[in-house]
Design a protein that fits this description.
By secondary structure, the protein is an alpha/beta fold. It is 39% helix and 18% strand. Manganese (II) ion (MN) binds next to loops.
Length: 338
């Protein structure tokens, strides 16, 4: 879906008129979620507009290098409900289904504020007053860059440039995924001109793992399973694996991409047992035209053509794995050219 550029100026106009803005994003935030939220915060603070980022979770450790990330607040009803109620504008980034804000769903839904969604996922759910959703974009950060570029009085500083760069670099898998267009590279060239250091940021994002997380990755790799004649690769992590290594499901963000590194695999899945939430998390990746957002949708989740996921309320990982096998069988039956 391509969108009319007048929405960009509408968003800029609405934000500049706002008195108090709450910015939020999805639970388990990634680089695009955090980078995009910070880019919006820094834009509003450039104009001295009262603004706060409030999210369901804490900031992943490898993103805390971002300047102003210490301003991101983890949602606490006692502390934040009144602040959220008094906001006249709510900006939701990198998310199009308010349910992905988890504990914040009710307070956000009940709010009478003007709600803006800036996002690049498929199938937006009805929630906001103004949608800026473009699924051709690599990342929400890229979209935010284009929106703020329409405001000629705004000057993007190094902190804002690093936030947007982080959003783009993480959501493109270091400029490797589909939708890594020439426009992406032109924007990144501008960000480098502002002073962004790609080597420094790569090191900060990807080379700060603890030994125990790499041990967990070793377990995950040693248990890889191939299905459907080698077209599908499953990586399954149980609570026992986390307990044995002293890690948690939050440590697995980059694991799923490893499933696609095997020759012949077109769909990879990381299936994670999260007993704290009574959930089984499914993270899906695919190559080329293989659209795994269909499979994620059929399991109650969503996402993009090549990157999607779902969280299934269950304590039975075997039954979720067999449910996923059934959805994959159905997918291959309907798309037998693959
Ligand atoms: Mn994104």
């Amino acid at each position: 879906m391509n969108i009319s550029k007048t929405i960009y100026t509408d968003i800029v106009k609405n934000l500049k008129q706002a008195k108090k803005v709450i910015i939020t994003t999805h639970s388990n935030p990634d680089g695009d979620a955090i980078g995009s939220a910070l880019a919006v915060l820094l834009y509003l603070r450039f104009y001295n507009i009262d603004s706060h980022i409030i999210i369901n979770d804490d900031v992943p450790k490898n993103l805390t290098y971002l300047k102003s990330s210490e301003l991101i607040e983890q949602y606490n009803p006692q502390r934040h409900d009144n602040i959220i109620k008094s906001a006249d504008t709510i900006v939701v980034v990198d998310l199009n289904d308010v349910n992905r804000t988890r504990n914040m769903v009710r307070i956000l839904t009940d709010s009478k504020a003007f709600k803006i969604v800036i996002d690049h996922h498929t199938n937006p759910k009805d929630f906001a007053n103004l949608y800026c959703v473009d699924t051709t974009y690599s990342s929400t950060g890229q979209l935010i860059y284009d929106i703020f570029s329409t405001d000629e009085s705004f000057i993007l500083d190094l902190n804002g440039a690093e936030a947007i760069y982080t959003a783009i670099v993480t959501d493109t898998g270091n400029f490797a995924y589909q939708r890594t267009t020439s426009d992406v590279h032109r924007i990144v060239a501008n960000l480098l001109d502002i002073g962004v250091d790609p080597n420094k940021i790569y090191d900060l994002i990807y080379n700060q793992n603890s030994h125990k997380v790499i041990k967990l990755l070793g377990i995950a790799l040693s248990k890889l399973q191939l299905h459907f004649g080698g077209k599908v690769c499953f990586m399954v992590l149980t609570n026992e694996d986390f307990a044995n290594t002293g890690t948690s499901y939050k440590d697995t963000e980059f694991f799923v991409n490893r499933t696609l590194s095997i020759d012949g695999v077109i769909i990879g899945a990381l299936i994670t047992e999260v007993i704290q939430l009574n959930e089984i998390k499914i993270s899906l990746r695919s190559k080329g035209k293989t659209d795994i957002s269909i499979i994620a949708n059929s399991m109650g989740g969503g996402g993009h053509i090549n990157a999607a996921g779902a969280s299934v309320k269950s304590s039975n990982i075997e039954s979720v794995v067999s449910g996923l096998m059934n959805q994959l069988s159905r997918y291959f039956e309907n798309n037998n050219q693959q």
